[in-house]
Specification:
Elements: H1 3-25, H2 28-52, H3 58-83, H4 86-115
Helix pairs in contact: 1-2, 1-4, 2-3, 2-4, 3-4
Length: 128
């Protein structure tokens, strides 16, 4: 178990969610730098997940894949927000916040799964 990965992933996800929450409370023009920062954080988290996922259980990998899907949607939506004018950007911030929330939720589920105690493996029957 790579606790460094677990801690970095959770911190990155929390930071991403806080940045988006801050962006939602600001006007569209003020939100753009926050959205750009959130997109960068999401890309970094996604890169970390891709690099580390093969080291975890199948169940944890399933949650990481789901988190990765939410991050992909978040990144795409974030880039759309940055490309739109002020009026269009503000309308896109709510779905962006929801994508961030879902990605954080799935990342947390993956970490919970990855850090859960494993049941003991029963001994194999010996052939006679």
């Amino acid at each position: 178990m790579n606790n460094d990965f677990v801690n970095r992933a959770l911190e990155s996800a929390k930071s991403l969610q806080q940045t988006v929450a801050d962006a939602v409370t600001k006007g569209a023009e003020q939100a753009k730098p926050l959205v750009a920062d959130a997109v960068t954080k999401a890309q970094d988290l996604q890169r970390t997940i891709v690099e580390q996922a093969p080291h975890y259980s199948e169940a944890a990998q399933a949650h990481l894949q789901t988190a990765q899907g939410h991050l992909t949607t978040f990144i795409s939506t974030g880039k759309d927000v940055l490309a739109k004018g002020a009026a269009g950007a503000q309308a896109s911030l709510t779905p962006l916040a929801e994508n961030a929330r879902q990605a954080v939720h799935q990342a947390a589920k993956a970490v919970t799964e990855a850090t859960a105690p494993k049941p003991p493996v029963p001994p194999a029957n010996e052939a006679r």
